[in-house]
Design brief:
The chain is an alpha/beta fold. Helices cover 66% and strands 8% of the residues.
Length: 843
């Protein structure tokens, strides 16, 4: 496998970055530049995230999506491995260069047995723990090799250790505690005891022969007694069952016939039907009681509700109009308020119009009034001047005053306009003319009091004006306003009066509509209150009616529901009663009483039949055959007594022979304090058998251990010799041929070109790291044929001097011809040691 390119979506401090790799790729970067981040990114892409994003040590710093892509080549085929944060190591996607998606299982096939731990052991070289390097042995190297070559190697190795331990617990060449070692020692001791027991062997043989004969005779007596005892127990059983045998013989000819359908289960079935009917009737009674209780507690229709029922259709139609009538009532009240305001305004208009009944002037009336006012004004002016004496010696300024007033009235007439224009213009011109007249008179002329009676003429004009006011019903003492302001006020008043009359008519119409609507209801006290109160009373009346209707409806629904339940129960009762009839009909009876009588008869027969059956069950056919051999009970009793006598005799014989056996046994035991010859021979044979068993187990364990060893060697394809050779070659190159060989035993040793050998612990720190690097490269290369994973070196040469570093780089270049090597370092000397195209700098 070769990594061609990595794309980082978000991982640690790196975000949205792309790096391309060569077959030999050196990556230079200072501390914290991201070297370790890239290494862990590659591992997570290949083997999955070890933690979720929330707790992952390399969660993106910029909150971007954690993950990325690896562009790899395996056997000249390019793949893209994409993994982003998710469950079970992340969401994995594998495609080829045409973006055709591959099954996720492909990655497992590409990696083979390589997991994260194996990768770290074989393909990753960081700063090694030199104490661990010093403890490396041949077994440690073989274990690392087998971890790749055998699936479940840990269990195999654990099994191998347990087998070796079990074998050692059985036998060790120089041990004393293992079981087989102890057994061999005890066997030797038993052989010595056997030779000592040879002297008393003849006496022992005679006693033992006598002992065996007694035992045999005792055994024969025991068998004889057991046979007799068995016969005795059989006859005793026959005695106990004799009465049952006699009763069975008497009743065996009795024929008992039972009718079907009258069993206890049939009775239970009928009673169950009865219980069901009783239960349903009780339910019906409960429901009827509830209906009666509800009837007693039910709402009684009120007088209002009865009135509604008598007029339901009419009241429902009227109720639909209630909202409209309420709106009419609000409009009616608004009209009343408007009318009151209009009437108040009309009163003011009447005052401005000179009375309630004042009439408008026609054109002739206006002309006449204007003429009278002009004449009156002229007479007043003449009267004024006729009463003013003028001295000869004083200047006469009256003409100036009159002309000024006249000009002012002319101007005022043009300002006021309308009907007043003519009057003011006429009076003003008269005054101007009269002033001009006075100015033209000689100064020496003096006006004396006139004899003309102006007051009479003015009174006559006032009388005419009063007559006009009376004819037009005007109550206004200011005639000069009659033809102007008063006429305008009268017209305004007349228009206002028409509006008031129109409002009154509308109010009357609304009043009649509401009154007609209220009268349609025929409810008490509707006409003794305001329209609003009456309409609210109607609304409350209908709300009460609807509430009562709902309550009555609910009551009726509850009652109907209970009646339906009663109906269902009654149908169930009918169905069950039919089942009862079918039950009785099937058994040819007409009532339960008749069924019960027949049931009692059948029960008696059933009990009799059961008694006979019990008798038959208590006596087997073999026992019946035996009992049939006896003529009578006395014959059976005679045989029983005979067997009891024989049993007593056998018991006494056994007691006597047992005493003899005990006596002989005491003598034998006294001769066998240290064991008799036969016993010792028997013990020796037993020990020999035990030793053979232990040897067999030990050989089985040893053969199994050797078999596992061969299996593991086959599974790892014999890679250990190859690893040894490669490690020696690489170590020789790294040390500039100073060390020529590497020897493997319990501990690894190295030999110089002069033949001097050193333990690993005796090497310098740098040389020890060179040896470890050689071993890592050797392990990696030994698997490159089946699992060509890239080698990653993370600042592994920090303790190397310049010469050692150059040697390591040259070795990496050579290895990269077969397996990709990615070298991470913070040593800027690398810039002079590799090609620029093979160097990637991290900022």
């Amino acid at each position: 496998m070769q990594i061609n390119k990595i794309e980082i979506f978000g991982y640690g401090k790196l975000s949205h970055q792309v790096f391309e790799f060569n077959q030999f790729q050196a990556i230079l970067g200072a501390n914290e530049a991201g070297k370790t981040t890239i290494i862990n990114f590659i591992k997570d892409m290949l083997f999955g995230f070890t933690k979720r994003k929330a707790t992952h040590p390399y969660a993106p710093k910029d909150k971007s999506e954690m993950g990325g892509r690896l562009h790899i080549t395996v056997d000249d085929t390019a793949y893209i491995i994409e993994r982003v944060e998710g469950k079970n190591g992340g969401n994995l996607k594998i495609t080829d260069l045409n973006e055709t998606e591959m099954p996720p299982e492909l990655l497992k096939r590409l990696l083979g047995p390589i997991n994260r731990e194996t990768f770290d052991n074989l393909f990753y070289f960081g700063s090694p723990n030199l104490a661990e390097v010093g403890k490396l042995s041949k077994d440690d190297l073989e274990t690392r090799i087998r971890q790749v070559g055998v699936i479940g190697i840990e269990q195999w190795l654990e099994l191998k250790k347990s087998i070796e331990k079990a074998a050692d617990e059985l036998y060790k060449q120089r041990g004393k505690k293992p079981k087989l070692n102890k057994a061999l020692i005890e066997y030797q001791e038993s052989k010595e005891k056997l030779s000592e027991a040879q002297q008393s062997y003849d006496e022992y043989l005679n006693l033992n022969h006598q002992y065996q004969e007694l035992l045999q005779k005792k055994q024969e007596l025991k068998i004889q007694r057991e046979h007799t005892f068995e016969q005795l127990r059989t006859v005793q059983a026959d005695e106990q069952n004799w009465n049952n045998y006699v009763a069975l013989d008497k009743n065996k000819k009795e024929q008992i016939e039972l009718l079907p359908g009258f069993t206890t289960s049939d009775l239970s079935e009928f009673k169950e039907l009865v219980n069901q009917i009783d239960f349903l009737k009780a339910k019906i009674r409960d429901l009827q009681g509830l209906i009666e209780q509800q009837q007693e507690k039910s709402l009684k229709p009120s007088a209002e509700y009865n009135l509604y029922l008598a007029n339901q259709s009419k009241f429902d139609d009227l109720y639909l109009q209630l909202d409209t009538q309420m709106k009419n009532e609000r409009d009616y009240e608004n009209l009343k308020r408007d009318l009151r305001r209009q009437e108040q305004d009309l009163e003011l208009d009447n005052e401005a119009a000179g009375g309630n009944d004042s009439l408008e002037f026609n054109d002739d009336d206006q002309t006449k009034i204007n003429q009278l006012l002009e004449e009156k004004q002229a007479l007043k002016t003449k009267k004024t001047f006729s009463k003013t004496p003028i001295a000869d010696d004083k200047p006469n300024h009256t003409w100036k005053l009159l002309m000024t007033i006249g000009l002012g009235l002319v101007v005022l007439g043009f300002v006021v306009g309308g009907i007043g224009l003519f009057t003011l213009l006429l009076v003003g011109l008269v005054l101007v003319g009269f002033g001009f007249y006075l100015k033209s008179q000689p100064k020496s002329m003096v006006n004396q009091e006139q004899t003309v009676d102006y007051d009479d003429q003015i009174n006559k004009i006032n009388q005419q004006l009063s007559q006009i006011a009376e004819d037009h019903q005007i109550k206004n003492d200011h005639p000069e306003t009659w033809t102007t302001v008063l006429q305008t006020s009268i017209k305004k008043r007349n228009q206002h009066r028409q509006q008031v009359e129109s409002l009154k008519q509308d109010l009357h119409n609304d009043h009649e509509k509401i009154v007609s609507y209220l009268n349609s209801w025929s409810l008490p006290n509707l006409n003794n209150q305001t329209f609003s109160q009456s309409l609210n009373q109607i609304n409350q009346f209908m709300l009460n009616i609807h509430e009562m209707k709902n309550k009555i409806k609910i009551q009726q629904e509850k009652r109907t529901e209970k009646l339906n339940e009663i109906s269902d129960y009654q149908k169930q009762i009918e169905k069950i009663e039919q089942a009862q009839q079918d039950f009785l009909k099937k058994r040819n009876v007409s009532s339960f009483t008749e069924f019960d009588q027949q049931y009692q008869i059948q029960q008696v027969g059933q009990k009799r039949k059961e008694q006979i059956q019990n008798l038959q069950n208590s006596i087997s056919s073999q026992m019946i055959e035996r009992l049939q051999q006896y003529k009578n009970f006395d014959d059976l009793k005679q045989k029983l007594n005979k067997l009891e006598r024989v049993d007593r005799e056998n018991s006494e014989s056994l007691t006597n022979i047992s005493e003899k056996i005990s006596s002989v046994k005491i003598t034998i035991d006294s001769l066998a304090k240290n064991g008799t010859y036969d016993e010792l021979r028997q013990d020796l044979a037993i020990q020999k058998t035990e030793i053979n068993d232990l040897v067999s187990k030990w050989l089985t364990l040893k053969l199994t251990d050797e078999w596992i060893e061969k299996v593991l060697n086959l599974a790892s394809h014999g890679r250990f010799p190859q690893v040894q050779a490669l490690a020696q070659k690489y170590f020789n190159m790294l040390t500039n041929h100073h060390y020529v060989s590497v020897e493997y035993g319990k501990k690894i040793k190295v030999k110089t070109e002069t033949g001097t050998k050193f333990d690993v612990k005796e090497l310098s720190k740098g040389t020890m790291q060179q040896l470890y690097l050689a071993l890592i490269f050797a392990l990696t290369m030994s698997f490159s044929d089946e699992y060509p994973m890239p080698i990653i070196i993370d600042d592994g040469f920090v303790d190397f001097d310049h010469v050692r570093t150059n040697a390591a780089i040259e070795l990496m270049k050579e290895i990269s011809n077969t397996t990709q090597v990615i070298y991470f370092t913070s040593d800027d000397r690398i810039e002079k040691q590799v090609k620029s195209e093979d160097l990637l700098k991290l900022s």
